[in-house]
């Protein structure tokens, strides 16, 4: 590029390569604009295949796409029987949700460092070189070549901004707290999901055993009915009814086995491993529970309000919005900065047939700058209004979360208390049903009872066994739900609760 000076005017010319480059860029832009209308479906009435879809589909078949750096590859031993603590450990190490929450917390920690960077001076170095050819007019027209080189170091340091930086740093720290407690809440949800799936799996196993017992009882009644028919003490309809009951019991057994299969898949899924993984799970040990919860409802509510991760997160969000309001108000005040620069400049000039001449010199400067926007189209006022509205919303969210926490603790507590009170009744119900069935079957075999009484006793004992299983399941699940609602589930140790910038 060069310029010619003649008669006080300056004209710039570009060489051929630059022109060709500009034409190529222009043609590329026109081509992109022309094809840009084809990036969506041509009509809304049917699905379509967007350009490049096959490449995405092919990429999804690559197993390396799903390998994450730093994850633990948990190997499941198909011959080992896993206890609940072992399953929880597998889920916490392997479930992708924990890594997602952890990475978000790490990003929030870096955001704190980013906000604190505004307290440091800003340094920028720049350098440049230029060549210029001019036609100078004195007594005659002669060419002049000018070569220029320069290097500069600029510094700008914000000294005072009426609390704007402090508010931004405080908001970033509150967001870090929110991310950290959300990370803990993720662990609590995973532990609850694994625990519930573990108990659901055991419940399904016990219901299979109940269904097997019901089938055995139906077959026993059927054999007894057939024996009475052989001795002329029963009718053919009684035998057919017994066969119907046996078929129904067999159907219920298959349904229970299907529910067990679903429960096993749900348990494996809660661990974050493939559903096709073969896994053996320990049985729930028989345990006697107290008639009432150990702690009072008021004590549980007080502890929940002081430690639940979602409440801590809402409080951190409230403080974040308060800091954002302070930062928005600080924008109305001036900013005072220290600015300075130091550099070096060299100029060489060659004119006509004269030898080169020029100059090489350093330069520097320093001073204070005050920046105060006088009018910005009401941008600061609107930002302040937005921040105040978000603050009011955060206040309401904290109140709503508190009320939700109280309701969840109350429900889990009453569910557990009800299940505990049902425990003794369910035991008595099963004992009475077993005695009634044994007596009815013995009387039926001896010709003293009726088929209807025996069939009713058979159904009653099956229902009583199912009631006992459901009652014990309700105790286990309600206990876990109560621990989750209070915030005790997967609670971090006290020594890990100190403030930290990283998770």
What would you say this structure looks like, in words?
The chain is of the alpha+beta class. Helices cover 59% and strands 16% of the residues. It has helices spanning 16-35, 53-60, 84-94, 96-116, 164-230, 236-270, 297-307, 309-330, 379-445, 451-486; strands at residues 2-6, 9-13, 81-82, 122-137, 141-160, 280-281, 335-351, 357-371.
Shape: elongated
Mean pLDDT across residues:
82
Instruction: State the strand order across the main sheet.
Output: 4-5-7-8
Helix content: 55-70%
Question: Any idea what the CATH superfamily of the domain at 75-120 and 161-334 and 375-503 is called?
Answer: Outer membrane efflux proteins (OEP)
Name given to the CATH architecture of the domain at 75-120 and 161-334 and 375-503: Up-down Bundle
Would you give the CATH topology of the domain at 75-120 and 161-334 and 375-503?
Answer: Outer membrane efflux proteins (OEP)
Give helix and strand order, one letter per element, not per position.
EEHHEHHEEHHEHHEEHH
Taking pLDDT < 50 over at least 5 consecutive residues as the criterion, the unreliable ranges are 1-19, 32-36, 497-503
CA radius of gyration: 40 Å
The number of helices is 10
In CATH's first tier, which class of the domain at 75-120 and 161-334 and 375-503 applies? Mainly Alpha
Structural class computed from helices and strand pairing: alpha+beta
**Strand content bin:** 15-25%
């Amino acid at each position: 590029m060069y310029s010619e000076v003649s008669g006080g005017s300056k004209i710039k010319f570009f060489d051929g390569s630059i022109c060709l480059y500009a034409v190529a860029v222009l043609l590329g832009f026109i081509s992109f604009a022309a094809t840009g209308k084809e990036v969506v479906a041509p009509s809304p009435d049917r699905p379509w295949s967007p350009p490049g879809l096959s490449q995405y589909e092919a990429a999804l078949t690559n197993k390396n796409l799903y390998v994450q750096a730093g994850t633990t590859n948990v190997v499941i031993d198909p011959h080992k029987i896993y206890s609940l603590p072992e399953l929880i450990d597998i889920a916490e190490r392997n479930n992708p949700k924990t890594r997602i929450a952890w990475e978000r917390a790490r990003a929030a920690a870096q955001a704190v460092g980013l906000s604190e960077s505004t307290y440091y001076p800003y340094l920028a170095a720049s350098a440049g070189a230029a060549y210029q050819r001019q036609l100078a007019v004195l007594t005659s027209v002669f060419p002049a070549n000018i070569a220029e080189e320069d290097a500069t170091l600029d510094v700008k340091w914000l000294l005072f901004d009426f609390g704007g930086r402090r508010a931004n740093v405080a908001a970033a720290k509150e967001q870090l707290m929110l991310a950290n407690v959300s990370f803990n809440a993720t662990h609590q949800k995973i532990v609850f999901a694994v625990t519930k799936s573990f108990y659901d799996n055991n419940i399904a196993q016990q219901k299979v055993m109940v269904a097997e017992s019901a089938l055995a009882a139906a077959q026993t009644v059927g054999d007894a009915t057939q024996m009475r028919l052989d001795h002329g003490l029963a009718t053919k309809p009684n035998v057919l009814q017994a066969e119907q009951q046996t078929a129904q019991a067999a159907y219920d057994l298959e349904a229970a086995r299907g529910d067990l299969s679903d429960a096993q898949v749900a348990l494996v899924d809660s661990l974050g491993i493939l559903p096709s993984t073969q896994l053996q799970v320990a049985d729930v040990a028989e345990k006697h529970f107290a008639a009432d919860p150990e702690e009072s409802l008021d004590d549980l509510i007080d502890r929940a309000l002081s430690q639940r991760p979602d409440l801590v997160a809402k409080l951190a969000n409230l403080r974040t919005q308060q800091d954002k309001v302070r930062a928005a108000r600080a924008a109305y005040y001036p900013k005072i900065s220290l600015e300075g620069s130091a550099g070096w400049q060299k100029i060489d000039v060659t004119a006509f047939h004269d030898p080169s001449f020029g100059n090489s010199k350093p330069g520097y400067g320093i001073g204070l700058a005050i920046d105060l926007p006088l009018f910005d189209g009401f941008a600061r006022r609107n930002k302040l209004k937005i921040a105040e509205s978000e603050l009011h919303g955060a206040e309401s969210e904290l109140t709503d979360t508190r009320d939700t926490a109280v309701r969840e603790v109350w429900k889990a507590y009453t569910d557990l208390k009800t299940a505990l009170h049902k425990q003794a009744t369910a035991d008595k119900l099963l004992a009475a049903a077993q005695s009634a069935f044994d007596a009815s079957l013995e009387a039926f075999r001896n010709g003293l009872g009726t088929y209807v009484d025996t069939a009713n006793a058979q159904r009653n004992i099956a229902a009583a066994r199912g009631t006992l299983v459901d009652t014990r399941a309700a105790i286990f699940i309600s206990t876990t739900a109560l621990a989750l609602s209070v915030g005790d589930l997967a609670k971090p140790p006290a020594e890990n609760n100190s403030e930290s910038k990283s998770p």
